[in-house]
Amino acid sequence: MARTLSLPSKSKKTAAKKVVRLAAPKVVAKKASPKSLKPLKTKGPAQTGKKSPTKPITAKATAKAPTKAVAAPPKVTSSDFSSSPFNSSLKPAEKIGFLREMLRIRRFEQQALKYYNQGIMGGFLHLYNGQESVAVGTASLMNGHDEIITAYRDHGHALAVGMGMNECMAELFGKGTGCSKGKGGSMHFFAPDKHYWGGHGIVAGQTPLGLGLAFAIKYKQINGCAVAFLGDGAVNQGVFSECLNMAALWDLPIVYVIENNGYSMGTSLERSSAVNGSLAKRAEGFCVEWATCGGFDLYELRANLGAAMERARKESKPMVLEVSTYRYYGHSVADANTKKYRSPEEIDLYKSEHDPITLWQNQLLSEKVITQAGIEKIDDEAKAEAAAAAEFGIASPWPSEESIFEDIYHEVDHKTEAGQTGSFFFSE
Amino acid sequence: MPLITYRQALNDAFAEELTRDENVFLMGEEVAQYNGAYKVTEGLWKRFGSKRVIDTPISEAAFLGLGVGAAMMGLRPVVELMFWSFAYVGFDQIMNNAGCIRYMSGGLINVPMVIRGPANGGTNVGATHSHTPENFLANTPGLKVVCPATPYDAKGLMIASIRDNDTVCFMENTLLYGDLGEVPDGSYTIPLGVADVKREGLDVSLIAHGRAVLTCLAAAEILATEHGIEAEVVDLRSIRPLDEETILNSVAKTHRAVLVDENKPFCGVSAQIAALLAEHAFDDLDAPVLRVTALDAPAIYSMPLEKLQLPDAQAVVAKVLSSF
Ligand SMILES: Cc1ncc(C[n+]2csc(CCOP(=O)(O)OP(=O)(O)O)c2C)c(N)n1
Ligand SMILES: [Mg+2]
Fold first, then answer.
1. Do A421 and B243 touch (CB under 8 A)?
2. Class of B3-182 in CATH
3. Which of A65, B93, B221, B257 lies at a 20 to 30 A Cα distance from A151?
């Protein structure tokens, strides 16, 4: 068993092999095995340095420390993944639907950004621009019994699972019509009816909650899995390591998706994490299966995440999937240093070469699933929907003053017997 | 009525609820095969099996968070902390997640979880194992805090807490686990937010929670027999919700209040009660509100000095006498 690791250098390899073998996932086949996943894209933005941002990297994960001068992610090779069992039977309407969802997220956020910059909208606004494929790909794989949870960069996941633009936009404006009645804000969107459990502002604080979702799925014998997202910075929180151990120990059906956008605020991955090939590889130490994949191309994301989720459901086993992705804007809109810790060229490179929406549009055009005019129509609709949502948000009333004391205690809200005894609130 | 220990009363409460509701499960370090570090869960693993009574690794943050996540999905976790002092490594999960998710989701989610374990000093184990965090847990709207003093209260409050649809922080006391008391068989609940007048009296109100209630009862006996003072002892039982009415009624009757608290004085539970009395009982009071609390220092190891740190009956008597 790979459960006990003792000698660091030697056992590392053994453990790695054992984990791969242990997993030998039928459904995942070769793709999700770290050794055979191709192309291994651990050197995406993760190890992006500031220099020579044009050199593509296709190196496999090695035991070497990451080198500094690595830049762009590997060329996306969509065709490699279109025939994956998770993609081969997609219908044109579904593929177009993915495009629509990604465009809706982007237009929604750009609309929000406009009002944020005007000072009409407050809070933090962590934009997901550039990462849309990850949320949309995930939502497209949910089977109705799967549960997902993420951190504060949560607008994309919220819209992807089907939350409405109006309620989300109104929440950003802090209005009573918001999805959390103006009580949560940008970082705290929830839709349990859509199997979406937030929206969490504390870095990695959601990772044990995800474990709880998986625990409940297993306890209730539901045919589903939990998918918990975290950032490349969040992996360094201790609680995440605790979670990996418990997930493996108890065979919980959870996929931890590390959305590796290369930065945690202004700190590049190489300045925050000791990495031996990839962040996901840390899972080995906990006997958790892991893999890495590119997140720019929906086919690739779906192929890898689909396999991971399927395995979690069928075998009730955890997995860590590290997805390379990139955010175009600052950490939040308030991030004044967004171009200081990375070069404008780097941002441009990702926008021009690895934009998930452009890539998907080109894919669909080449498949003749959609026309340019068709794309523009969808985009116009997304823009109009976002503009209308902003109007809705602005026109909506503020939450009532009384609502300050609502939604704190279930028993009080529901006026149950337990909500009637004693004082619950202590301000006059 | 059967005479059983505080520990057994809790154990009975778990057995009742595990039997009644299959969504209830117990989780924590050593709760299952080891039968509980303080044997509070003794026999339950054997009786209910590994699905319902679960040993965890020493990962408070992860298993508290797991409890919150599972509770969001409708399960009813009863999560044991070997000591409440250990909650601090998982505090984020309690304060931010259990405490705030309902609010931040606009009421879409609730977290029906019980977090329980002993929270007391006085056991000669030093500061790290002697914390009494009821004050700062009660400082978080969204959490409920319960501190039973007797076996009867422990069982009824525990059953009510497990059935409660909000997160309840349930604080036990290692010094009370062996205490005997009359406890009915079967299921019964004591509502949260209802204080209990454990002794009636006309001369002074002693207001306390947890083990300090027993200290007050002992002090009341001394006051009655040696000083002719009849003290009323108000057991808060739950800190949040708080039964303000019973407190105010008692003080309106006795015109004097001495607050006895094993919690620290600064922003402690007694400070909240003092504020309540200052605002709402000013005209009833014939003397200043006085407090006997834990001394304002980390719990000391040295045994005789540690005894000085917590309120005892003599200190309470002295404080009461000083108010006349
Ligand atoms: C416990 C905690 N520490 C620090 C922060 C402040 N903070 C918010 S996001 C963030 C960076 C996280 O980066 P990453 O995990 O890579 O996610 P990304 O922002 O890239 O999506 C920091 C330091 C926080 N919210 N919570
Ligand atoms: Mg990041």
1. yes
2. alpha beta
3. A65
